[in-house]
Each structure stands twice: as C-alpha cells, then as structure tokens.
Amino acid sequence: MSTKLNNYLTILTAMGLLAVIANGCKPKNVSSATSGDGAEKAYVAPGKYDEFYNFVSGGFSGQMSVYGLPSGRLFRVIPVFSVDPEKGYGYSEESKPMLNTSHGFVPWDDLHHIALSETDGIHDGRWAFANGNNTPRIARVDLKTFRTAEIIEIPNSAGNHSSPFITENSEYVIAGTRFSVPMGSNTDVPISTYKQNFKGTVSFISVDKNNGAMSIAFQVLLPGVNFDLARAGKGKSHGWMFFSCYNSERANTLLEVNSSQKDKDFIMAVNWKKAEEYLAQGKGQKQTVAYAHNVYNEKTHSATSTIERTVTVLDPKDCPDMVYLMPCPKSPHGCDTDPTGEYIVGSGKLAAVIPVFSFTKFQKAIADKTFDGDYEGLPVLKYDAVLHGEVKKPGLGPLHTEFDANGNAYTSFFVSSEVVKWRISDLQVLDRVPTYYSVGHLCVPGGPTKKPWGKYMIAYNKITKDRYLPTGPELTQSAQLFDISGDKMKLILDFPTIGEPHYAEAIPADLISKNSTKIYKIEENENPYAAKGEKEAKVERKGNEVHVYMTSIRSHFVPDNIEGVKLGDVVYFHVTNLEQDWDVPHGFAVKGANNAELLIMPGETQTLAWKPDRTGVFPMYCTDFCSALHQEMQGYIRVSPASANVPLTFSTNKAPESAK
Amino acid sequence: MKKINLTLTSLLLCGLVACNNSNNQTASTETTPTEETTAGGQEAVLDNDSEKDIVKIAVGSKDHTTLVAALKQAEYVNDLSNAGPFTVFAPTNDAFNKLPAGTVDDLMKPENKDKLTDILEYHVAVGGYKQDMLTDGQTINQANLKNITINIKDGKMMVNNVANVVATIPAANGIIYVIDAVLLPPAN
To answer: Is 80 exceeded by the pLDDT of residue B39?
Structure first.
C-alpha cells in the first residue's frame, strides 16, 4: 500500500513539473496542415453555386442540415424528428401529426444517418431518408421541397441505429434495432432474462418507386445482439444486405466490459430476395403491433397520422439460406460495401485492423458449406474463407469507410483521429491525414453508391476542443473538407455543424436544384381551411372554437381586426399566404401563444391554435421580413370575458363584418 | 547507461516540442502557402483546467520515461490523448530494464516500429476497466487483438501472471495500471 501511494505521489509531483512542458507542446503551425491553396479550392464566389449538396444528419438535434460543398455554407436545417419553432414544425396544427407515435406526440429524436434514393445504384435526387434513433422511426424528406414528407415508426425495435440504408433501386430502406428487446405479448420480463427473452429485428421498408410511400414489407427476427450499421449489396451482391452486429455476448449490463469479451462479433448477411420468396410462400408470421405512419399531403398542406396494427415477421428458423454470419473483429461498427459490390468492409471499433470480406468468397463458402458452427441457429461462415484480407495496422479505432471511383477506400479512425486512404485490391495504405479531432463518419459524394462522384471527402468530427473560438463548455462539432482529387488527401476547409453530425451524403447539385419547388400553387391548395383570396377570409364560431380564415399578402392580413373572442375560446388562425412569388413567405405570431410562430410559404395554409388566458387586445404580426411595409403588416384581436356580449366581427380597413 | 540515454531522448523530444510553442498565437493567421507540415494532434491541445489525461500523466512520471519514449517512437501519443476511454498497463522504467539487454534499444530502431507498436498496443485496451469490474481469470482483448489475462489474488492484481499492478492512477480518459513487468504478446 505504501509503495503504491509513494509511486502515486512521485508521479503526481513529477507531473506538476513536466505537465507544464507537455502542455506547452502545441506546435506552432496548426493551420499549416491545410494546404496553401485550400481557401481557393473551397471558395465559392458570392452569387455562384456550390457543386454539391451535402445532407448532414443533425444527431441529437433531430434535424437534417443542408450544406453546400465545397463552401461549407449552411443553406437549411430541415426539421425532421424534432419540433422547430422557427418553422412552426410540430407547432402548427397541420404538422403536429408528423411527430405522432404509438407513444403519442414525441417532439424530439436523435437523427443519425442519411440515405439518398438511388436508381440502378446511382443517386437519383428524389428523396433523403433518415432514422430516428430513440423512438424508432424512419423519415423520408422530399428533395423537391426539402420538407419531411413521411415518417413511419418501427415496431419491435429500440434504438433504431442500423438505419436507414438503401438498396440500389430504392426497393427497400432498412432499419435494424440497436437494442434488442423483449417482444410479443409479454414484454414485462426481468432484464436478467435477456438471453431467453430479448430479440433483435431488422425491418425492410418498401419504397413506392413513383411517390416514395413507405410501408414495412417484413421484419426478420434475430438473436438478441446489437445491430449497429448496414449497407446494401450492389451490382453482383444486389439482393443482399449486410449488417454489423456487436454484443454477441448478449450482455445486458456494463456493455463497456461485458460486450467486449469476444475477439469477434459478426457481419450479418441477409438475402432479401430469398426473403421475398419466403414471404410469397406465406412463411411470414403476422404479428399484432402498433406503430404510427405519418404522411404529409402537399395538396392539403396537412399531415395525417394513422396507427397501423400488423407487421409480418420472418424467422430464419423457417427460412433456410436467408441469413448468414461472417465473424468480424471486434465490436464492428461500420459495415460498408464498395462500389463494385464485391467487398464488404467491417470496422471493429476496438481494433487496429480492418477486415475486408469478399462477396465471391462469401458465396463460395456458402456453396461449400465452409461453416464454423452456428450462432443461435444462424450459420457462421469461417473467417478465413470469406476474408479478402485485412488492412494491417492502419490506425486505432476504425469506424466508417467510404469509397472513390478509383478502387480506393477511406476509413475514419476515432481513437487515432485520422483518415486513412487505402487500396482495396492489395489492402495497402496509401495516405493518412489527421482530423481535429476524433472523427466519426466520412462522406465522399456518391461514396456509398455504384458511382462515387469523388473529388471531396468530408470528415465529421466529434470533438473540436481548440479548433474554434471557445463558447463555454459546450462546443460545436465540425466537418472537415478534404480534396481527394490527387494522390494525397488535402485538408481545405473546416466548418461547424449543427447538433452532432453522424452520417452524411453529398450529391451533385444539379440532380436536385433543377427540381426545387419555388411556390405552392394557390389553386391546388386543398387545405379545408384555406382562404384562396381575400374575399374568402372570414371568422366562424363553432362552440368555443373560433376559426379565423386569414389571408396574408404584402403587406396586410385579412382580417386584421377581430373582436368577440371570449375567455375559454380556442382561436384557430388558418393563415393562407396568397403570394405566388418565389421567396416571399409570411410569418404569423400572436402575443402569449403557448406554442410558436407559423411560417407560411407562398400558396400554403398553416394553422396556429391560440388559447387566450386573459382579456384585452392582443397584437398579431408577420414575423418574416416580407416587404418594405413588413412593419405595417399587423393586426389586433380583442378578447372579452366569457359573459360578455361583444359580437364576433372581423374586418380590414372597413366596417366590421359579422361572423357566422 | 541505456536508461540515461532514453531519459535524455525523452527530455529532448519534449523540449523540441515545447520549443515550437513560442508563437502559437500567430499560427491561426498564418497563411503562407508553404509545404504542409504535421500539425499538432489531440496531444497538443492547450488545456490546464481539465483532469490530466493518460499521456500527460505518463509524461509527468519519472518512472515512465522509457514508456513515454517508446510511445513517441511508435507515434502513439496522439492515440492515447483521445477521448478513449483506455485502460493502459504502464510498465515502469525498471520493468523495461528487466528485459534482456539490448531489447529496448532494438525496439526503438525505426525498422522495428511495427513490433514496438504491437507490444505497446498489447498494453492498451479500449475501455475503462476499473478493478472492481474485473475478476480473476478474466481476459481482455487488447488493441493489438491479443488477450491478456487478469489475475486477482487477495485483492492484488496481476496481468498474465507476470506483471504486478503496483499503482492505479485514474486519468481523464481512462485508467493507468502501473506494472512492474513488460507484457509480451503471444506469438500468432
């Protein structure tokens, strides 16, 4: 004991002296890791457009952000799983159903990964899918409007992390559960019965090729491991989906230690074409569940939420040849397929090696039955039989791999805080660059597709410490842009991000920009509360509900004077923006509203519910600087006692009209 | 003699890095399009407020100059400055001295960097393993993918039945177990 203490004290004393030196060890040329012409390469002149859109997950913000590349300019934050008072998302009556779940209204989630729709393995620029990690959901964002068009909840899932990854014709978006959980009729079981009672699932969500509509086609019931990430096969491996799995120990406590016991976990391969056959043969079991399916209708400018009650589950025990496991060191995180579909790269996050699997060898091993036993009834293929090779000593803590079109892979290393470029064919490390600091995901434009657009690679860092001016204990996370057009990766820019950037995708701008919606046509507005002209503006009482059919156009509301509202009423402001002119939204806010503003695009109708809590006259105004007379765009609403006999009237610049 | 050499080397290394500190304030505005140089990594972050991380503790220990020199030679300082968490089994200078004569000098040669890294990684686990999480006979898979075995007898911890844990030092990014013998990875 005294020896231990002495040593400790000696170390502490010496530490005090030498730590000063260590702390003074910041090299002087931090910024010189950026190549000299970085600014020029990332510079997009005022008025010029970026080359790529970059759709970046917002992590615990629950949103998706849209940046331009190479400038790193932030264009828009698309509200997806979290309410956004700035846009009225989750506050307007029309958008509230988007956040409905089987648990009721859930105003937040943790958005981790992006999957852009593909046709024949190439970006088609139609939709961006994203996962809600906490209350399992998948969202589809329409890339014409940059708005969340649909959200589907995933039953039999918890911690929807292994999602959403997309097949090469957007046949399916998949959603794998990170947490295994008890399923079925009795889920109230002791946590210590994990090994008996807890199961995992992966869900295959079909995507309608015409309108993108999602539907859970089937789920595969699996042992209670943790599913982490996934990628679809492509080309020769089209029809397969590959998932990384950890916690094959099936620990239910202190996973930090207990799920790190085995040298190898698994990459799981699911043959979804085979699954479709079994489904057609009626091998699926219908299960009674409850999950919300929320759809935004662009004609009514309103969302509906439906609770769906059944899901079809395939059990591999009834479906041979559908699921195989490949051993993978060590608690694999990333699971990425190269553009040819031949190679599957696993990244064991605790390891200093990158195993690369060969699809050809995988198929041969299945044909030759080169098995290494089974895991919970699932056949395990022999590691050496499916391995193309290992990238040796590339760094510590490999996480994610992206690809260029020239047979190279780029792998992020969290612990050694670097990106390593290596050649797939001979597994040779070609280049490495540090990131600042602790990189997570990478993005190469088109990196996960059959046709990487290349040119840039973006590293999304978890820790920024001294990279920017400090902002107290909470610091921004960051993106770092590298030019990968040459042999060596060159850092040319870094920029802060919203929330936590997990996965991101980037796509050539013209695949999207040419389709971008500018206005909603007023004549196509089917919102039941739309006022499609000032003559349609009116106020109606239905019991204690007062419905204001209001219009906004530069620079006034109709009506802008309202009287006869009583305490105990709920006032619904249905505001239609009559503008048919690009980039002229109007906002709407009323004093004391317990929610948010509305932000109404040209031709759109949105509704704010307001429950006055006192009598008086309350101002309302346009919140989005719409015109030279924006400050004049205002009105008043009078609230009288419940017992008052003030008639319900409304007007703009004339004698008040009596409401119905 | 060997010990002195290594101590000097590590002091020199540290001194060299420290010298670069002179004008870091101007670094951020420096835009001269010169050759790219290796930028400071996680280990170079200026922070005197946070708890010390594993590297800072090791650098400050007079009993671990050989280990620190080896970490620098293997370019492993950056890694261990990461958020981790890590469990590092840190052999003392005496532990290195117990190796056959010339072993350390040999490992420090540039051509043996991979071998040195392998040995160092055999002393590092990604994960914060407190002693009360560990049981006698438990194996831990180290960063080089080889297992060590923990031995716990009468509350005293050993590793692979060869190295005694002589001190436990909590760090901001993990735990250091000071050990009195170098762990040698098993052959493939």
So the answer is: no
Domain ranges of chain A: 49-513, 529-658
Decide if A49-513 and A529-658 have a common fold: no
Q: Which residues pair with A595 in a beta bridge?
A: none
Helix axes B65-73, B113-121, angle to 10 degrees: 120
Q: What pLDDT, on the 0 to 100 scale, is given for residue A260?
A: 80
Cα separations in angstroms, A457 against A59, A116, A442, A601, A632: 20, 17, 7, 34, 48
Backbone angles phi, psi at A600, to 5 degrees: -115, 120
CATH architecture for segment(s) A49-513: 7 Propeller (2.130)
pLDDT at A9: 44
Q: What is the DSSP letter of A438?
A: -
Low-confidence residues of chain A: pLDDT under 50: 1-32
Whether the Cβ atoms of residue A127 and residue A512 lie closer than 8 Å to each other: no
- The hierarchical CATH code for the domain A529-658 is 2.60.40.420
Interface test with B, best of A3, A29, A264, A466 (most B CBs within 10 A): A29
- The pLDDT assigned to A33 comes to 52
Beta-sheet pairing, A605-610 with A456-461? unpaired
CB contact under 8 Å between B39 and A434, yes or no, is yes
Contacting residues for A41 by C-beta, under 8 A, at least 6 apart:
A70, A483, A490, A492, A493
pLDDT reported for residue B41: 83
pTM: 0.91
Number of Cβ within 10 Å of residue A231's Cβ equals 27
Structural domains in chain B, sorted by start:
2-21+52-179 (2.30.180.10)
B-chain residues near A431 (CB < 8 A): none
Containing A556, the helix (H) or strand (E) segment is strand A556-558
Tell which wins on pLDDT, B8 or A265.
A265
pLDDT of residue A360: 98
With 50 as the cut, is the pLDDT of residue B144 above it?
Answer: yes
ipTM for the predicted complex: 0.84
Contact (CB<8Å) A25/B20 = yes
Neighbours of A16 (CB within 10 A): 11
